[in-house]
Amino acid sequence: MQEYRIVGKSIPRTDSLGKVTGEALYTADLKLPKMLVAKVLRSPYPHARILHIDTSRAERLPGVKAVVTGFDGHGVKWGVFKYTQDHAMLPTDKVRYVGEDVAAVAAVDEETALEALELIRVEYEPLPAVFDPEEAMREGAPLIHEEYPRNINIHVHIEVGDVDRAFREAYLVREDTFRASGEAYAMMEPYAVVVHYQNGYLDLWMPNAGPHVRAKALSNLLKIPLNRVRVRRIAIGGAFGGRSEVQPADFAAALLSIKTERPVKLVLTREENATSIRQVHDMVATIKTGVKRDGTIVAKEFKVIYDGGAYSSTGPIATSIPYYVYEETYRFPNVRYDGYRVFTNKGIRGMYGCHGRAFLAGNEVQLDMIAEELGIDPVEMRLKNGLRAGEETATRSKIISSGFEEAVLRAAERSSWKEKRGKLPRGQGIGMGCVAIMCGFPMGFRSGSSCYVKLNDDGQATIVTGVVDNGQGNESMMVQIASEILGIPVEDINLVNADTEVTNLDPGAYSQAAAFVGGNAVRLACEDAKRQILAIASDKLGVPAEELELRDRMVISKKDPSKKMPLRWVVREAFFMGRPVMGIGAYMPKIDFEREWVKNPYGQMAGTFSFGASVAEVRVDEETGLVRIEQFVAAHDCGNPINPMAVEGQMEGSVAQAGVATVMEECRWHEGFLLNPDLLEYKVPLACDMPQIEPIIVRSHDPEGPFGAKEGGLTIRMNAHSAVAAALYNALGVPLKELPATPDRVLEAIEKGKGGRR
Amino acid sequence: MQEYRIVGKSIPRTDSLGKVTGEALYTADLKLPKMLVAKVLRSPYPHARILHIDTSRAERLPGVKAVVTGFDGHGVKWGVFKYTQDHAMLPTDKVRYVGEDVAAVAAVDEETALEALELIRVEYEPLPAVFDPEEAMREGAPLIHEEYPRNINIHVHIEVGDVDRAFREAYLVREDTFRASGEAYAMMEPYAVVVHYQNGYLDLWMPNAGPHVRAKALSNLLKIPLNRVRVRRIAIGGAFGGRSEVQPADFAAALLSIKTERPVKLVLTREENATSIRQVHDMVATIKTGVKRDGTIVAKEFKVIYDGGAYSSTGPIATSIPYYVYEETYRFPNVRYDGYRVFTNKGIRGMYGCHGRAFLAGNEVQLDMIAEELGIDPVEMRLKNGLRAGEETATRSKIISSGFEEAVLRAAERSSWKEKRGKLPRGQGIGMGCVAIMCGFPMGFRSGSSCYVKLNDDGQATIVTGVVDNGQGNESMMVQIASEILGIPVEDINLVNADTEVTNLDPGAYSQAAAFVGGNAVRLACEDAKRQILAIASDKLGVPAEELELRDRMVISKKDPSKKMPLRWVVREAFFMGRPVMGIGAYMPKIDFEREWVKNPYGQMAGTFSFGASVAEVRVDEETGLVRIEQFVAAHDCGNPINPMAVEGQMEGSVAQAGVATVMEECRWHEGFLLNPDLLEYKVPLACDMPQIEPIIVRSHDPEGPFGAKEGGLTIRMNAHSAVAAALYNALGVPLKELPATPDRVLEAIEKGKGGRR
Question: Which is nearest to B651 in space by CA: B685, B697, B587?
Fold first, then answer.
């Protein structure tokens, strides 16, 4: 195995210091001359026609500089795809959920802005509303968007092989339905944006998952040429999917800035952050599995209903992602998937780092139920069905590297699976969840990344990349890759990133593309620069370029280390020669661009896939129904970790957000009102809730990944709920068919399971 | 002559709109969270030993966050060259001029900072001072720096040919001494800097002439690695040389920010701007010229004494620049130059856009005196001696293009020279001044520029270049070059420039390098991008790349215009292919790097030279001595103007700053105190003082320049004073041997000239 100098080393992330010292500048910290404060008026109804909006009194309030409504826009609607453009950011026809943005005010201070909101008169005609997706699909239910019959936003149908025949021929068939409530993103930094429009240029500061995608959306919505919309890098306080898409907040703040030609800051409250940005889909998943006598899966059929809330958002993608990550894990010769995303009069649902717990945990729990019936160990069951390198997924994505087997075995070993499974005392259980995930998925010409690197006159380097860091350590990773190739320490490298003006297109922090796609672009650019450096040094030293290497800020002969010169000298020589060292690199993953999320869901989905297996050990208090996760082993094939500490950090965060959340996190609703929009009522895991975590890094050395690297951390986020649900099934003897595993549900399951396994 | 679509067109500068609407953000407008205000304590003595500085009372004042003196630095001294590093930014040994920076305070507001200054106690021991450079050179004069005997800072000696023999053989020899007072830069925006130091990174916002040079200086002075010093682009309110170098203001603000880890803003007052930044050298030039009977110059000898003020600053360069621009104009087979820059206890003198009026105007007036003696027309005299393309300057710089002859002839024609010279009524006169100037001079590996261009997915482009715009229109020019090559309108082009983080080395706005050097780099980068575009389009259209052209946002076949596709499509295709269009270009002018300003002043100085001839027509009120410049014709060989309007704007500014200033601008001193540091007492030309200006653009189509372009505007700035002085000689019949031509000096000359020409 090749050893690298800096790649693979656990180093503090380059952005850590500013964050721990409090010096990192967040959007809310920004001050610009003449900046105004914005506030948003929101819908009090889940569904109502807007008859009239009167902003005149608010406009006359001293200190108010502008009031905007949807009538100030161009009527362009937002949607990820052309066929889902249904979200008018600020609606003019009707409101579709409680908390929907209706009007916005920019004033000299917050108090004035809030006072002005009270002066806006909106006349509504309340309409019948629908809150349950299954009800919403029935004929005669109130229609939320006229153009979507039965409120069905998206229907994804995937069919491979002869499913019905396979079921007929199966030794054993099970069908179960699993449900899960929606969750909140609950990122620590509420949604925030600062917009400054002047001279036809729109400048935006906001943490976001994809600056180029955001700029494009705003360019379309505001009809401003793309090169006059600049989304800038700024520190981020968590995203988890909650900053993936353009938001009414961006749009409203932009309209206000355009109207005033002054900078406008809009920071949402904690409650607004919960109700009016995005939430996680509630879900009902009916899963039917057919197996052979030996546990081999021969048929799968899924019907999944996603509660989409009021608008399409990332619906076309969200409606199949849980399925994909599952088919990337296991071999399905015959499979049928029907995913329905349905509109309801609730907040909009979007992508989430651990999207699909009903589906994924349901599948894994059902696999354990089948294993139990067959008398096969769940670990065995997974090893038998897991995809290996060289195989293809059901929808024809080739797997080029897989650490699945190693992850399963090492997780089992570290968790003392053999010693514990079936041998734990009453109320305790151990369970495994597995998943694979795509690294980079098709986003058209935005699927690739590119990088420009320049060598500065002190022998330091600046790398310019679109890669954005939403807290994962992506920035640090890019610097480590450059450091490895250029042979200079990380402190000699400046990173310019996530700014639409100077960086090139990049997929953004979607689809786990940063390490695999962005990292490859940085690698290629630095290798280009290295070639230029070695060519000059070769001339100067009289040593062939292939005998030279870069290390310790020097160009050194590998054969005769006395032949060397400082990198700085070479760089200066290059400047003198009039050909400064400037490297260019670009990487496009080998994906099938004919593939389409809804209309043609077949073909290569991603350049590669990463794998993971989690084992949770739980203890249930049978009196109170309280669940404690005691131990968590997470084994993750990330190809080769660029920064193991960062990958482990991601794995630990995943255990909290997906694993521990499985016993507590849910959004509770009543008639379209979110009952727990704050952090007092909405429970997120605290330090005291955390299990002991054992992160295991599995190295499959991906042939395409930069230094063998793939995605780091998300597989654990997508299987941690499965491991907890499987462990609960093991502890209780009956499957919990609804998540999260809150005490009421656990007690109900215990009741149902009386006379069960123990 | 080749016609271009956008190069050569007069378009509004891309930065104009923000400036005329007031939306451009200047350094003083910047607000950063927790920003402090800085003020500087200055020396009240022209020369004094610092015995003790007590800042303790100031530090205890509530609201004061830090006080710094030179003891807070590392003792590093600044100088442009190693052998002139004598400026300790904040001195700890002694002060050398009134207004020198001694201590600085950062406080929560200006009032507190000012109050704190009064609480700092500095104990001084006054020392004998010297204010006149000729006195300062005498043995026994007070020494300002121990290491410079006779206070001689720099002595430049240039000798070519056999000067003494040539004088002996000359038909006519004249020797005259000319003097000129120093001037103020008087830029409208006072010197300003905002510094933010955090986590080891120093961020600076300030208008400046060369961000890379500034960052390097601060890196050295503060011992912060170069890649942790970032100088950013910000709007500029005039420079003219006054923002060329690192200043004590930068250093003091940086120390304060380092001490507080908070942003610090320092904006100088108008008076501080005059006394404590830089001024223009006072000068005494003794000029000896030998000619043949026909007016051919055969020998030149110069002795020039420059009053340097207290520190070296750009001394090594300033001590010969007037000579060089003159030898680049005329053929000198035998020449001896001795330039002495001498320290005095006055403010520091630096580079200026029209540096050297005593020397240049003196030479041109003396040429007219010789012409008069020989009975040759001054125009004839200039044509006879002017350098042509293919010739070499005395110090061996080859001239590759020259519009000298055309400039002289067209200026004469447009000014009705033949009709007026010798025929104007009493008190009126007409005179010509000529000069050539280097485009890019040796700054080591910083002499070149490079550019990175990326094509964005809407077919727009972003160009990244170090080129800085100090008001000349450089930014606009780079955009026009890119527009021409890429066939897209200027509004489709974003410019990222003058920021040390993302741009590569560039000489900066020194040495007239922007158009010639920076423009060439932009041209080459765009041509590189164009090649990539045409290669892809050629495949798609089935048309050979050489048959394709870029225009109107399309790739079009030159032979069959029906074969075309939008540039946007090609760019997107490139993204799909995983090789986005990214162009790289670099240009290093063909200069002699062995050349050194003082130690080896021979060899190719610049890539090319631009030429100009000015004709001024003046009217003198013989009662009051007031001079009015009535008409000014400026003919300028700028190779080929990228934006004629911008070049004409530069020419007009030059007439004001150099031409009209010749009758009014001077710094007046008394015992080391500047008597006129404000704009009430220091007279700058107002609209009512301006002559009618006729700008003439001469096109020599430089073979190396981008689209034939060379420097635009500075030749006029360097000869406008000569034209005015020559016109005054013509009006008065006696030469004015001291500038500016204020009424007192004019009246004295009239007195002296009684019985003169008229």
Answer: B697
User: Which residue in the block uniquely carries the two structure tokens 């499957």?
Assistant: A735
- pLDDT digit string, tens, across residues A669-718: 999 999 999 999 999 999 999 999 999 999 999 999 999 999 999 999 99
CB B105, CB B648: distance < 8 Å: no
Of B25, B460, B502, the CB nearest to A226: B460
Q: What is the Cα–Cα distance from B739 to B664, expressed in whole angstroms?
A: 9
Is the Cβ of B288 closer than 8 Å to some Cβ of chain A? no
Mutate: best of B199, B223, B567, partner A, most A CBs <10 A: B199
Mean pLDDT of B550-564: 97
- C-beta separation of A325 from A387 below 8 A: no
Q: How far apart are CA A256 and CA B270, in angstroms?
A: 37
Per-residue pLDDT, B755: 53
Condensed to tens digits (0 to 9), the pLDDT of residues B734-756 reads: 999 999 999 999 999 999 877 54
E strand spans, B493-626? 493-497, 548-551, 554-557, 564-566, 582-587, 608-620
Neighbours of A559 (CB within 10 A): 10
Q: Among the residues of B85-197, which ranges form H helices?
A: 110-119, 133-136, 163-169
Q: Do B227 and A580 touch (CB under 8 A)?
A: no
Tokens read off for A485: 């190739």
B191 touches chain A (CB under 8 A): no
**CA atoms of A385 and A521, how far apart (whole Å):** 34
- B571: closest chain A residue by CA: A445
Helices (H), A375-460: 378-385, 404-414, 417-420
- Interface confidence, given as ipTM, is 0.94
Ordered alpha helix ranges (H), B199-346: 211-222, 248-260, 270-275, 315-318, 321-327
- Does pTM surpass 0.90? yes
- In tens, the pLDDT along B573-612 reads 999 999 999 999 999 999 999 999 999 999 999 999 999 9
Q: What is the Cα–Cα distance from B511 to A680, expressed in whole angstroms?
A: 65
Could you tell me which chain B residue has the CA closest to the CA of A493?
B227
Rounded to whole angstroms, the Cα distance separating A442 from A384 reads 30
Tokens of A300: 């799968």
Q: Which two tokens stand for residue B552?
A: 């109107």
CA distance readout (Å), A750 to A179, A373, A623, A731, A758: 18, 20, 10, 10, 11
